[in-house]
Amino acid sequence: MQELIRNTLPQNVPLNQAIVQELEAGNWAGFLSAQQVERLCLDFTLTPVQLAIHLLPIAACYSHTGVSHFNVGAVAIGKNSDFYFGANQEFANVEIQQTIHAEQSAISHAWLRGESQIAHVVVNYTPCGHCRQFMNELQGAEELQIHLPHRLNSPLYYYLPDSFGPKDLDITAHLLAKEEHHLIADHSDELINQGILAANQSHCPYSESPHGIAMLFKNGEMITGRYAENAAFNPSLPALQTALNFAYLNNKRLTDIQRIVMVEKPLKLSHKSMTEQLLRALNLPVLEYVKL
């Protein structure tokens, strides 16, 4: 990842050198804090959106595109100006519906880092309909601004007029809002507890079937993923995808994963079989499944 990022932008440019230094300080995770963003903007006389557009080729470095070979980068800017990178993640030998789009990647990355509202989404290609619908699920979607290199400052409704979303179904809990499913993490196995906590923060107001993923790495680190449901159903993002995406964007090696736990309360639907299928395709550890 380090060399790919270094080679993406010319390193004889001071701005690019400064960006590489900031990313290196964070172990090459696709994230810049508001303080780092402010420092770069002040040093190089940029607005945050201008900086985010400059970063899009670097965000695209985190893509895995074994199907399309077409890399898309995105940056989600939080309400306090933190930058969360995103990139499209594809998985060969499984259904194409398992794909993570770049905008979904950046937003779920922000969600797992504790972000509560996205102010701007910056992306290097026009959002597809799938992503427009996914963004419409967000808390504060009516205020969200979309920026492309050739078109800045467009509200989401410019791309999704006459939209259908949570409000049409009388749903008041939106994606990134704090949610609670009253699941108790009291297991003797801490990895299972982490899966329960992840499931407890799922966004699933339509199926009421939360699930979470917890991964254990060789160094003892645990990464979790949560289910992000959508009013249009198809743009929903399962917990395994959000966990894998987080691992990719934080420069983790999937080969270092030792255990994977899925905790699910399958009231109306289950993601167990598609989760197992993707794990087999990626040659990852056998799923440990806990039904609540």
UniProtKB/TrEMBL annotation:
Enzyme Commission number, as recorded: 3.5.4.5
Record-level GO BP terms: nucleobase-containing small molecule metabolic process; pyrimidine-containing compound metabolic process
Bound cofactor: record note: Binds 1 zinc ion.
Reactions catalysed, as given in the entry: 2'-deoxycytidine + H2O + H(+) = 2'-deoxyuridine + NH4(+); cytidine + H2O + H(+) = uridine + NH4(+)
GO cellular component, one term: cytosol
Keyword Kinase: no
Binding of substrate, residues: 88-90
Coiled-coil segments: none
Broad EC category: hydrolase
Keyword Metal-binding: yes
Domain CMP/dCMP-type deaminase as annotated: residue spans: 47-167, 186-292
Entry keyword set: Hydrolase, Metal-binding, Zinc
Active site annotation, chain numbering: 103 (proton donor)
Listed InterPro entries: APOBEC/CMP_deaminase_Zn-bd, CMP_dCMP_dom, Cyd/dCyd_deaminase_Zn-bd, Cyt/Deoxycyt_deaminase, Cyt_deam_dimer, Cytidine_deaminase-like, Cytidine_deaminase_bacteria
Positions with a binding annotation for Zn(2+): 101, 128, 131
Pfam families: dCMP_cyt_deam_1, dCMP_cyt_deam_2
Record-level Gene Ontology MF annotations: cytidine deaminase activity; identical protein binding; zinc ion binding
Entry's family note: Belongs to the cytidine and deoxycytidylate deaminase family.
Protein's job: This enzyme scavenges exogenous and endogenous cytidine and 2'-deoxycytidine for UMP synthesis.
PANTHER family: CYTIDINE DEAMINASE
UniProt-listed NCBIfam families: cyt_deam_dimer, PRK09027.1
Subunit structure: Homodimer.
Protein name: Cytidine deaminase
Organism this protein belongs to: Rodentibacter ratti
Taxonomic lineage from the root: Bacteria, Pseudomonadati, Pseudomonadota, Gammaproteobacteria, Pasteurellales
